[in-house]
Design a protein that fits this description.
Shape: globular
Strand content: over 45%
Number of helices: 0
Helix content: under 10%
Structural class: mainly beta
Distance between the termini: 40 Å
């Protein structure tokens, strides 16, 4: 059983930055595609970014391209989401998620508990 624990959320002003972390345990992360998803109040959960396991391809939602960067360190069993130039519309609960042995982040096998990101002045 893979366990995912997010951290790094919080309150930030528009234009600011946050770095989310996702620490995995229970299974080597190298065998998983890892994604970041988010869900804003009253909206459906959406995929923000995905980092496949093999090959290591990254993709991003159009709304975050050029502002967010996903990275992973399999040796540390950790994934990060660097978020720059944050906007109020980025406000949401952010979830780390994993799919075993996949070249995409669909469907998801494991979810983290989520971390709140609030962008507001």
């Amino acid at each position: 059983q893979l366990q995912l624990v997010e951290s790094g959320g919080g309150l930030v002003q528009p234009g600011g930055s946050l770095r989310l972390s996702c620490a995995a345990s229970g299974f080597p992360l190298e065998h998983f595609a890892i994604g970041w998803f988010r869900q804003a109040p009253g909206k459906e959960r959406e995929e923000v970014s995905c980092f496949t396991s093999s090959p290591g391809v990254t993709n991003y939602a159009d709304s975050v391209k050029g502002r967010f960067t996903i990275s992973r360190d399999n040796a540390k069993n950790t994934v990060w989401l660097q978020m720059n130039s944050l906007k109020p519309e980025d406000t949401a609960v952010y979830y780390c998620a994993a799919t075993f042995g996949s070249t995409s982040c669909d469907p998801i096998d494991y979810w983290g508990q989520g971390t709140q990101v609030t962008v507001s002045s």
